[in-house]
Design goal:
single chain; alpha/beta; Rossmann fold; DNA Methylase, Chain A, domain 2; two-stranded antiparallel sheet; 22 helices; 11% strand; elongated; disordered N terminus; disordered C terminus; binds S-adenosylmethionine
Length: 555
């Protein structure tokens, strides 16, 4: 019988779930999603149409639906992972145009604080890992204030937090989509979540290379044409495969799962007025309206040319599509089909977002576009899910297993760690380069030993806000060396005094003077966690290979 630690039964929650892009990817990465929450009627209707009843979908406002209410409904008060995309409109870089990301309007936008409801669930369910997905604007909004707040508040809950940018194109999504991920790992879970995501294993190297790989087999339509449900054009599909080769076939069959969809749905083009249609016809493939005008085309629409030079854009077959956004529900002017005189259909947008063809959108077209544009591409979510699964599997050591440690030397006590670190604190930063390799390594391992909650990846992205209070997990270190406790950078949690050492560690890591396992020294981190948690130390026996042969760290 699987226990809650066996890989088969890893569980998750999806908050602000939308139509379920994140859930779909997590389920494909073999997570069991116990519940998904969103307050939007169409989102929950679409979610329910696509997932089994075992994944409970609740239409609830997360600002009013507390974690204990969810726990009572699903009969579980802990999960392995919580994922979610608190709404991002408040952070969107698009809104920087109208200054909405700056000044007093920032304070009035309540949606920006929705991440706190997400963190309430983290505090209550204590997942081992959480992942927040958001737009890139999260980093820059209000000069980074929210980016710092999300990370600082998660760290205060006992999570090691790291922010990384996800580039969907490298994961097989035929789209220019960059999103901010904020990943938290509970401090007592050893190891550092790897920086770069790899494409989902199911896809192999059959990634979509461009827009046409995802939509080239779909039937032609005029603007305003198409039905909510229709037959595929199987002849056209075969022609497409013949032209594009096996890779295209594999992508459509493996990622978009065309064979699982009995009929084609949501391939219905929106109507456009005659003037727009004439202007679309003036665009060459891959061109926006400003470029067409620059080569002498005269567009009919009236607009302020300095602001809206790219009012229309015709996508290119052999390039990545522009980012599919929820704004598609308002108009499709930036998403003109590469060869047909109309904007993309919801099914085309869904395919570019890597939703499989069987995924149903049983709601009106404007809602379809909004749900699709808001979603995490399932293929991205799957890559994230697989990475978390691998990470948790490696971090879950069966009780009494002897873990061989190959990194040496590791400190045995906090006093010893501080002793190894102190000489570097007293040096002028410019002289750190001259520290002998072994002395530097000892000091770097000492940091991992002392601070399970700090991530090397966030050491240099600390923002400007500094906290001077000595608190939380730093308090014990303060008694030995006060500088190691405060001041610290609010965003990353790194004590200010360690910043030059982290910079030097990065330099040595990049020049390969520090190996991967030394830079992300989870062994030193694990030794520190066991030192502070006698209970965990009893469960795992750590054996220092290579260091006084077989001496246990407890012994
Ligand atoms: C960016 S979308 C999330 C998309 C989702 N991660 C996916 O992959 O499909 C944000 C969602 O948050 C929902 N939302 C906004 N405020 C909410 C609230 N107070 N309570 C619950 N859901 C909310 C919206 O309805 C929207 O579906």
């Amino acid at each position: 019988m699987p226990t809650d630690k066996t890989p088969q039964s890893l569980t998750c929650l999806d908050l602000f779930c939308g139509c379920g892009g994140f859930t779909l990817g997590m389920e494909r990465a073999r997570f069991r999603c116990l519940a998904a929450i969103d307050f939007n009627k169409e989102a929950i209707a679409t979610f329910k149409a696509n997932f089994s009843k075992e994944t409970r979908a609740f239409r609830k406002d997360l600002s009013r639906f507390s974690p204990d209410k969810l726990a009572a409904k699903i009969g579980v008060n802990t999960v392995d992972v919580i994922v979610g995309g608190p709404p991002c409109q408040g952070f969107s870089t698009v809104r920087q145009v109208d200054a909405a990301n700056h000044g007093p309007r920032v304070r009035r936008d309540k949606r920006r604080y929705l991440f706190r409801y997400f963190l309430d669930y983290v505090a209550a369910f204590r997942p081992r890992v959480f992942v927040i997905e958001n737009v890139m604007g999260l980093q820059s909004a209000a000069k980074g204030k929210f980016f710092t707040l999300v990370q600082a508040e998660a760290r205060n809950l006992g999570y090691r937090v790291q922010a990384q940018v996800e580039e969907a194109r490298f994961l097989g999504v035929p789209q220019k989509r960059r999103r901010q991920l904020v990943i938290g790992v509970r401090n007592d879970v050893p190891g550092y979540f790897a920086g770069e995501l790899r494409p989902a294993s199911r896809v192999g190297d059959h990634l979509a290379r461009n827009l046409w790989d995802a939509i080239g087999d779909l039937p032609e339509l005029l603007a305003g044409e198409g039905n909510e449900e229709t037959d595929y054009d199987l002849l056209l599909r075969e022609v497409f495969f013949a032209e594009r080769g096996e890779k295209a076939r594999h992508y459509l069959q493996t990622v978009l799962e065309i064979d699982r969809a009995p009929r084609l749905t949501a391939h219905r083009a929106r109507p456009h007025n005659e003037k727009d249609l004439r202007d679309f016809a003036r665009l060459r493939e891959g061109e926006h309206s400003g470029e067409a005008e620059a080569r002498g085309e005269k567009m009919e629409f009236l607009y302020k040319r300095s602001c809206f030079k790219d009012r229309y854009k015709r996508q290119h077959r052999e390039e990545l599509c522009s980012t599919i956004v929820a704004h598609l529900s308002k108009d499709g002017l930036m998403f003109i089909h590469p060869t047909q005189n109309r904007s993309l259909t919801p099914r085309e947008a869904a395919r570019i977002q890597t939703f499989p063809d069987w995924f149903a959108f049983p709601v009106a077209r404007t809602h379809q576009f909004r749900l699709i544009g808001n979603a995490v591409p399932p293929l991205v979510a799957e890559a994230v899910g697989e990475e978390i699964r691998d990470f948790l599997t490696a971090a879950t050591q069966p009780a009494n297993q002897v873990i061989p440690f190959e990194i040496a030397p590791l400190p045995a006590t906090e006093e010893q760690a501080v002793e190894w670190l102190r000489p570097l604190l007293d040096m002028p930063p410019t002289t750190l380069r001259r520290v002998a390799p072994d002395d530097f390594k000892r000091a770097w391992f000492a940091i991992a030993f002392l601070y399970a909650g700090l991530h090397p990846d966030s050491a240099l992205d600390h923002g400007e806000a500094i906290c001077r209070k000595c608190e939380g997990e730093y308090a014990p270190v303060a008694a030995i060396e006060p500088r190691l406790s405060a001041p610290y950078y609010e965003r990353s949690g790194w004590p200010v005094v360690l910043a030059p050492i982290a910079r030097e560690a990065w330099r040595r890591y990049r020049s390969q003077a520090l190996a991967e396992a030394e830079f992300y020294c989870s062994e030193a981190q694990m030794a520190g966690i066991c030192y502070r948690s006698p209970q965990l130390a009893e469960e795992v026996r750590i054996q220092r290979v290579d260091f006084n042969s077989t001496k246990d760290i407890q012994g």
